Amino acid sequence: MSLRALVTNDDGVGSEGLRRLAQMAVAAGLDVVVAAPRDEASGSSASLTAVKADGRILVEEQHLDGLDGVPAYGVAAAPGFIALIAIRGAFGAPPDLVLSGINAGANTGYAILHSGTVGAALTARTQGRKGLAISLAGATPTNWDTATAVAQQGLQVLLATTEPVVLNVNVPDVPAAELRGLRRARLASFGMVQTTITEVGRGYVTLAVADVHAEEEPGTDATLVAGGFATLTPLNPICEVPDIALPGVELAPTGTRLQLVSPVAAPPRTQPRRRGR
């Protein structure tokens, strides 16, 4: 029996990258259902937002070129929400894995926190599913064939893993002949671009987006993609930090509540000064 895959993204159901990823999944022998945002949802992270009418989430059937017989839906919701309800059976049998992309633009470094593409895959992981997020670098990328071939490699790696995991894959926007290979990479400290505040005024804020010097972080995804490599980074969502010391708080045994060892006293209340008459 074929594994069932949800194909989604954050660029919207009409995007070229979504269609390419779904075609690759079908060619790989997966039982595919496509459900993606009706409108662009970039930067939505793993948010659980949706548009409702009379308490119902809006879903529209779609037909995608080259995907005859593959059920496809445009959903008025963020990709993380789509992944969640798909696993609950909203679009037929729940998927065994979630494939998200192919995003137009890289999703590298800690900036993946804000990515709807990665957010959908991480949502799947919290539900015990494997996930693959794939992105093609560049503001207006054109080398979809390269990204599709790398997505196929990423899928093979994902299927070979023995535990649920998310693989975040980034591909430089170059012809396949110029791709230097696929490398496992660490997350960069931010991403390939960084947003800064240039002006704070009365009732407004002005932003600027600047390139980050990727060469300063060798071995990271942003650096390798800038150097012509495709990258693969395994991810896990919701990671606690068990070894950090929290002053005044002791770790309670399983099944009990945390208790303050020495409660912090509240500051004394200041009495308002009275004016003389």
In short:
20% of the residues lie in helices and 27% in strands.
Mean pLDDT: 83
> What is the gyration radius calculated from CA atoms?
23 Å
Order of helices and strands: EHEEEEEHEHEHEEEEHEEE
What's the shape? globular
Per DSSP E runs of 2 or more residues, the count of β-strands stands at 15
* Main beta sheet strand tally, sense and closure: 9 strands, mixed
* Helical run tally: 5
Q: How would you classify the helix and strand content by structural class?
A: alpha/beta
Assess the beta-strand content as a share of residues.
25-35%
Helical percentage: 10-25%
Poorly predicted sequence stretches spanning 5 or more consecutive residues: 41-47
Strand order of the largest sheet: 5-6-2-1-7-8-9-13-10
What does this structure look like?
The chain has five helices and 15 strands. It is of the alpha/beta class and 277 residues long. Strands 5-6-2-1-7-8-9-13-10 form a nine-stranded mixed sheet, sandwiched between helices. Strands 3-4 form a two-stranded antiparallel sheet. Strand 11 and strand 12 form a beta hairpin. Helix 1 crosses helix 4 and helix 2 runs parallel beside helix 3. The radius of gyration is 23 Å and the shape is globular. The termini are far apart. About 3% of the residues have low confidence.
